[in-house]
Amino acid sequence: MSEDESALSGDAGVVGRRRVIDRIDDVLLAATSGISGDGRALTIVGGPGTGRTTMLDVAVRRATALDMDVLAASGADDESAEPYAGLHQLLLPLLLSRAGEQTGSLAVRVALGFAPGPSPDGRQVADAVSALLADHLAHRPTLLVIDDLTRLDAESTGVVEDLGARRLSRLAIITSVQAGRAAPLLGTRLALGPLTEAESGRLLDAGHPALEPRLRSAILAASLGNPLAVREIPRSLTEDQRRGLQPVPAQIALTSRLARHMAETIADLPADTRLLLGMHAIDPDRPIGDFDDVLGGRDALVAALPALGNGLVELVGATRMRCLHPVVLGMIADGATRAERDLAHRSLGAVLAVQGIPEPATVDAIASVPRRAAMREASAEATRHLGDWRGAIDGLEAAATIDARPAERARRLARAAYLAASVDLAVASRLVTEMRLHDPTVAGTLDGALAIAAVASRGMLTDLDMAHRLLEEAIVDHGHGTPDDPLLAEAIGELRWVCWLSGRDDWLRAYRRTLHAVGGAPRAGRLTRRAAFGLLDGEVRADEVEAAIGMVDDHTDPTAIILVAEAAATVDRVASMTHHLERLIELADDRGPVVPAIWATLMLADDDVGRGDFARAEQRLDHAITRWGSAGFNLLSWGVDAQRARCAAGVGEAVVISECVRRMTAWAIPRRAHRVVEQAARAELASAASRSDATVVLERANAIGPIGEFGAGWRTSRSAHLDVVLAARQVGRPDLARVHVEAMTRNGFGVISPRCRMIHLAAQALVLTGAAARYLFEAALAVPEASQWPMDVARIQYSFGAHLRRNHAVAHAREPLTHAVRLFDELGCQEWVELVRAELDTTIVAREVLGGPIAGGLTHRELRIAEAAASGMSNKAIAVQMGISARTVGNHLHHAYVKLGIGSRGGLRDALQALGIGASAARARIPTE
């Protein structure tokens, strides 16, 4: 049996429990008299220190006086997972007796390990125990007494429940249960409430009859009717204090014994109850109903029930809650884990953001230093909820200066540093340094590792390896979090960013193992549960994205908005998030977080580029550089370069592409940030495609990922798929083109979005011939929403027209080629215009529409080939670029020589310059219908 809770000897010392003792007597009398019914079972319920074990001791003494046998057991956490551990305690005396050796108890002996044999099931054990006890009860009435039934192993609990249901004659069952814990109902349930003041006084006087009156009153007030507190508190005082020779303490602390009981009780509460108590400990005067919204939609009063039941708190009126002992407030805060304290402050911050942040003077008036610091921290979180991240950082720094405890100061500085890593990297670096000075071990905590990793991964002097190591170790050490653990969600998000930026397959595999080790990604506000798992693999489904987008509003956390927007980007739905992304940019301009705003800018610009709106994309990028260019975020530097290079690829600005790619690779390669190198390759691929340089297209494609394997880089690609398939055909590798299209089909690329379906159909058409290809091209152009992506439509029209011309449908080729040249011209894509015009130039209709030859008598194709040859390209290279044979190139050059009056390619450059003919000379009027 567990340690006696009040250390009383003899029933005479039990005060205020007459009703309970009478009920015990009734149960024992019913058993000794052989009376049947429910009256032979009793469950005693009480909170810490109320005397549950004392009442069981009373029952044992009274049963012994009635000449009853007693079989006792006590539940314990360290044995609760061991099958039949409780039954072993109960039945050991019988198993050691002669009656216990009878064959009827074989199942029991096997279950408890005293005999060999196959393990019996629960019903067999219950029947055997019943038979064993029935045999024993025929000789002597017996009391089964079990302390802390809820800590008994499940198998033993099931047998005890079965015995209660069988109502064996001459058997009494008395158990104790901690208040607030679910337990089987065995007979009558009797609660142990607090003692009255008079009863507490009698108990105190019995142990300490000569206490100084003021001290006696203080002890009674502090004990709140708890028998253990009444008896133990005087023992925590000095002899001089008990005699009145020293002043009474301002607040009498609980004894270590009662404090231990209280701490165990708090630890056993459900997670939402502990969260509620954590917020109450910070803001004890707040109406309980204010906490409803931060408890997952659950009524706060319902969440409070376990704490009410075990005597930790009480309701004051209909709206407020009060701890029954002032010290419990501190115990709730001190007993919480770092993650629980973090969650309590953030959750209370969400409440304050709605209900109103207290004035600084009100916070400063709080007498308790830890609670004053906690309220300042919660106010800072409320400020963050309202969009002022800079104010939140200042508030967290202020909270850290109030509470000088190293661990708490470091925790608050870590939180401030993490927020600052999205606002001002210089401030974040300073806070990380201060954090480590106050607590050198903080790097091993999840919040400390998160702060350090955020600074290490977001600045220009990026150390991805250190960030990855710190985060992975801290997340695994943190262990399983609750579905709403925001600290774990942030750490997983940061690890995901580091793994994504690295682009290393081994890190991505380790990321998935880490997620599995901690039980998966937290819910993070119920918005991004799926996105947290799927974005690295491109496996987010459109219906899930639609649901997530529908849940975003103006109060959604910026990080969650970016996650949803990333998910939207994977299904080409960024446009649905435009309002929320532009709001993030506005917030950053007004004391909000900068990193989410940079992401928002880049995603919107990427969407603009995909739609061919290069001017709008450039405007967004210019604003970002102007506003945040000096902040030192690597994301802004290479991200803007990546989008500018894509814009330049669209409009044919080779110098801009070269400069952007040079800067990106110079930063990324030493840091092994392979994703940035991949982004540079995308821009170079797009530029090469506009020049019809198939060799470079295929070379840069392999930097994104092996063609045909469809890795993570290809899942998020769009137009590049068409470029690769077309380039493979141009270099005489139709097998490579088919392999890539098959990979697109196998990985479900065509079902991701209407845009992907359009591209997939066109890619399939490129590897087919005849009517099948024509059907797929037409199906691609007829896809709903196709007009939203004019760049893709123009490319498909160009490919369609080229296919028709090569299949001798020259007249039919005019329409798609004409549409393509018009679209490219409207978008400002001059290199594409020249490419399509060259294709049009091969048709008789095109020559008529374009108004005949250019100055010097050259056709458009002759001019283009002549310019390419003048630049130093070989006939073979020109043929690959233009998708024609080397012999055809030679024929066109021969005609050009004759028309220009020269004998070899050595005179081409001078002849063209003499006529004033350059690339711009090929621009004739756009054909009309």
From TrEMBL:
It comes from the Bacteria. Residues 858-916 form the HTH luxR-type domain. Keywords: DNA-binding, Transcription, Transcription regulation. PROSITE patterns: HTH_LUXR_1 (PS00622), HTH_LUXR_2 (PS50043). CDD domains: LuxR_C_like. GO terms for biological process: regulation of DNA-templated transcription. GO terms for molecular function: DNA binding. InterPro entries: AAA_16 (IPR041664), P-loop_NTPase (IPR027417), Sig_transdc_resp-reg_C-effctor (IPR016032), Tscrpt_reg_LuxR_C (IPR000792), WH-like_DNA-bd_sf (IPR036388). PANTHER family: DNA-BINDING TRANSCRIPTIONAL ACTIVATOR DEVR_DOSR. This is Helix-turn-helix domain-containing protein. It comes from Gordonia polyisoprenivorans.
